[in-house]
Amino acid sequence: MNSFLFSTPTETLDYIGCHSDLSFIIFAGIPLIKSLSTTVGENVILCSTSGEFSPKGYKDNVITGFSYDSEITEIVEIMYPPAKSLNKLKKSYEKVKNNPNAFTLLLCDGLAAMEESIITTFYFADPNFKIIGGSAGDNLKFEKTLIYIGKKEVHSVAVFFDMKKRTQLIKENIYIPSGKKLLVTDADPIKRTVKTFNNNLATVEYAKMLGIKEVDLPNHFKNNPLGKVSKDKVYIASPMKVNPDKSIVFYCQILPNTFVEVLQPANYNSVMKETVKSAVFKPSFVLSINCILRSLMFLDKNLWGNVSSNLLSLCENQTGFVSYGEQFYQNHFNQTMVLLLVE
User: Fold this and answer.
1) Where's the FIST domain (predicted)?
2) Mean pLDDT (whole number) for 218-233
3) DSSP 105-151
4) How far apart are alpha carbons 135 and 104 in whole angstroms?
5) What is the DSSP letter of 256?
6) Which of 207, 257, 263, 299 ranks highest by number of CB atoms within 10 Å?
């Protein structure tokens, strides 16, 4: 697996043309993905982003991604609804399930709110089977995200990698519970909308818990998302937007009659050092997927340079993208970084 970084579609297509024996996964913004989609062959998967991570660290409006040996992978188009792809997913999984180094890379439509349905479709897989994924972005326009297999636009895609080298998945969470909890008293999980917390309008109660004016609530989403706590692990649910009726739409499902924690930022440098230390081997390749709200916080606080240098200390052969949601094993959440390490 080799990462790359280009500025233009022409450079990218020249590189692909010189390595016709390989396959490629490419991350870029909407205009660049549209341009590439008219020319690339079936050995190329394209995914739109809200920012890119490259061998030179965090970038915006560039083309990055990685090449790989076509013979070690099997690509499955995930249709809408995902259950239509169940048999193909199961057949591909059966071929790699006994390989502890195998993994599946999911690239999901970032605006269809179907990630939980896609993850559920993997009900047949062992819980320890490695799944890493990200939801395609469109630079916060919230209009349309793009995924292609060659020139064919698809809803989502799963790429099964039958790796021989050791692999490891890592999840990084830079938020911790603040000690404040909210009870979800009315919610629509399908629409990912919370209507009330503590039997009060969602925006009113959320703002009250933070001690801020209700009108300022959207400005605090980056620093104070909500967390679903399970077995001492925090899974972040990021707010997307406030509706006119004072309900809140999230990037992932929140179930009614459950408690959620109001989160606050942890010490990023300490967390990042622990993330790097958690690598059980020296990787030759790293794929990172960072949530859009993490990226916005890093931009606000001028932290992306520090983040990039810490990640690149693992190895320089890196790629990745800024996503609208992250998948890790059989979970979908937000405001998280997930990493794939290959020895």
Assistant:
1) 21-201
2) 85
3) EEEE-SSS--HHHHHHTTTTS-TTSEEEEEE---TT--S---EEETT
4) 14
5) T
6) 263
> Which of 301, 335, 290 lies closest to 59 in space, CA to CA?
290
pLDDT the model gives residue 149: 98
How do strand 130-135 and strand 103-108 relate by DSSP bridges? parallel
Q: Are 269 and 278 in contact (CB under 8 A)?
A: no
The mean pLDDT of 7-26, rounded to a whole number, is 96
Give the CA radius of gyration of the chain.
19
pLDDT of residue 203: 97
> Is the distance from CB of 171 to CB of 233 less than 8 angstroms?
no
Cα–Cα distance for residue pair 203/209, rounded to 1 Å: 10
**CA nearest 1: which of 15, 22, 17?**
22
Q: What's the pTM value of the predicted model, to 2 decimals?
A: 0.91
Contacts of 243 (CB under 8 A, 6+ apart): 193, 249
Cα separation, 9 vs 5, in Å, equals 11
Place of tokens 């996964």: 25
Cα-Cα end-to-end distance for the chain: 10
Q: If we measure between CA atoms, which residue out of 58, 85, 103 comes closest to residue 328?
A: 103
For 329: left if phi > 0, alpha if psi spans -120 to 50, otherwise beta; the answer is left
b/e sequence 2-18, b meaning 16+ C-beta within 10 Å:
ebbbbeebeebbeebee
- CA 36, 22, 289 angle in degrees (round to 5)? 65
Band of pLDDT at residue 231, cut at 50, 70 and 90: low
The mean of the pLDDT values for the chain is 94
Q: State residue 90 phi and psi, 5-degree precision.
A: -65, -40
Specify the pLDDT at position 233.
Answer: 79
Which residues touch 301 (CB under 8 Å, ≥6 apart)?
Answer: none
Q: So what's the pLDDT on residue 122?
A: 96
Map residue 159 onto helix, strand or coil.
Answer: strand
